[in-house]
Amino acid sequence: MPKVKKASKSVIKLVKGMKDILPNEQVYWELIRNKVSAAARDYGFQYIDTPVVEATALFKRAVGEETDAVSKEMYSFVDQGGEKLSLRPENTAGVVRAYIEHGMLNLPQPVKLFYFAPQFRHDKPQAGRYRQFWQFGFEVLGENDPIVDAQMISLSYFILQELGLNVEVQVNSIGDDNCVKKCQDLAKDAPQTVDHLCDECNKHFTSVLEYLDELDVKYNLNSKIVRGLDYYTRTAWEIVETSEEGKLNALGGGGRYDDLVYLMGGRQTPAIGFACGVERIINKMKDVKAPLPENWRPDVYVATLGPEARKKALHLLLELRKENVSVSEDLAKTGLKGQLESADKKGARFALILGQKEIVDGTVLIRDMENGVQEVVDIKKAVKEVQKRLEHHLIAKVLKKSK
Ligand code: HAM
Prior knowledge:
Strand content: 15-25%
Radius of gyration: 28 Å
Largest sheet: 8 strands, mixed
Number of domains: 2
Structural class: alpha+beta
Bound molecules: histidyl-adenosine monophosphate
Distance between the termini: 54 Å
Number of strands: 16
């Protein structure tokens, strides 16, 4: 071991409002990513990545200069070339920019995109509120039909339900340019926005609710849902969970933004989308002890005794991996006892043990980690023998389950 020096300098800490995502939390992240990707595949969404840094003007125009997200919370700077740039506070503006810039207006519509990406808001840090936080979001551009509104609402709802959360939807219509001025003024005092919609918006919203009734979505009409970003028109919703004190906590939110593509320089294109906060979802999953997938277990653990065996094990590990057998090892450990304990802890199904004698004989020991039974096999047949046993193991497991 090299000589360890004492620390000579002060330790530089994590920036306020930021969060490390440590290995023990990754099980949640992987689960959420998988659920989001599976839902995206089933509903025909394609993945998009846009840059973290965009022109400050993009957010000013798309999200709105007066909004908190832009006027108070945006990380903005002038770069070495004198450009005014910002870290994105949300992802819809970037997606719309990319949609226009890459001519997606000319593709068959609607264009359906999703993302899983970090966002930045210099908000006051507190429980469930970070300065860098992750969102997954879904956007449908080029479709006006209210059935899509209901589908998007149900998509946001079911992803969170499938993650083990008991959530509900708060839905509203904030109208459009034909009714919105009047109803937004009214919304501040009178909670009856939907009563003041123009005929077209009213018809659209009524259809959204009819379709929602067809789906098994728990929803409430809530005229207080006006959303904090300027681009919304018509349908707006939040996915909330009720805290113990009865407070509504938003895990996600979205709405129509039928004028945004036009406002950003494209042609008039109806659109709708939502985004959910990943850290907030994970906090809630921990609170309710949401079920998590079983930890990964290696099929085989390779244990060695002696320098020749370690060399041989390097090849054996490569061969096993090439055959898609999942492996684990601690080749830097020299004691066999410690290695077998590690195999046990990791939940390996079998161990392949290579010692001095096995190297001389050209063999290897296969140990069934469940019952401790060991057999000697020809090292050249080791991979095949392992595969055979794994197959038996799998069949036995299925049979046991079906009984
Ligand atoms: P948003 O409501 O601003 O909408 O954010 C969506 C979700 O991101 C929130 O419900 C919350 O879970 C999470 N979130 C927001 N701020 C923070 C924070 N400081 N820390 C942790 N989580 C946070 C949007 O961003 C829109 N772009 C959604 C959208 C997509 N609308 C149409 N398409």
